[in-house]
Design a protein that fits this description.
Layout (H helix, E strand, L loop, with lengths): L1 E4 L3 H6 L11 E2 L5 E8 L2 E7 L2 E8 L7 E7 L3 E2 L22 E13 L2 E10 L2 E14 L2 E11 L16 E14 L1
Antiparallel strand pairs: 1-5, 2-12, 3-4, 3-12, 4-7, 5-6, 6-8, 8-9, 9-10, 10-11, 11-12
């Protein structure tokens, strides 16, 4: 079955919150999430992005033709301590004034098991592009679809945490991006 979740470029640029899918599938905001986890002084910290857009074009008969694109509003990160939300927008961290969006664009998808894909693509954060690959699971969820995955990255590869913040004893280099996208008809 060919399942298309598409969004025009003009619509993608106008999105301000959550995920929007064209056609008959809609985001279930209550069940979807985009989170990051990192360690600060060896203590795990979890934060969530509140505004992002996703395009998924899943062709279950010809997986290699499937595509995905994600756009994240870097100003929408919510940390457990709200006073740090503005801090991470500064030049040393996200430099959100100059780089307000992070993006992921798939370059290939391969079926590795029933309901599981290996997704390759380019992740761009703070103007730096890094080729990456990660597993993605998908399955029917009621009348929609459930997509889940996680992608570990190295923050220093993207220049996140400049100056004194390059010291990984305070904030670890590894950050895990975890996402759950649930759609309904």
């Amino acid at each position: 079955m060919k399942n298309f979740l598409r969004l025009s470029s003009a619509t993608l640029l106008s999105i301000t919150t959550g995920l929007v899918f064209a056609g008959s599938l809609k985001l279930d905001n209550a069940k979807s999430s985009l989170q990051i986890t990192f360690k600060q002084m060896e203590v795990p910290v979890q934060a969530s992005f509140k505004r992002y857009a996703v395009i998924i074009d899943l062709n279950e008969k010809q997986i290699e033709q499937s595509k995905a694109q994600v756009e994240i509003d870097m100003n929408s990160l919510e940390l457990p301590a709200p006073e740090y939300n503005k801090e991470v927008q500064k030049k040393e961290w996200f430099n959100a004034a100059q780089f307000p969006k992070a993006t992921f664009t798939s370059t290939a998808m391969k079926l590795i098991a029933p309901g599981k894909l290996q997704v390759s693509g380019n992740l761009t954060i703070k103007g730096k592009v890094v080729a990456t690959s990660f597993p993605l699971s998908y399955k029917a969820d009621g009348t929609g679809q459930l997509f889940e995955g996680s992608l570990p990255i190295k923050r220093l590869a993207f220049g996140i945490g400049d100056g004194e913040w390059k010291d990984t004893s305070m904030v670890a280099d590894e950050v895990v991006i975890k996402f759950k996208v649930v759609t309904t008809k």
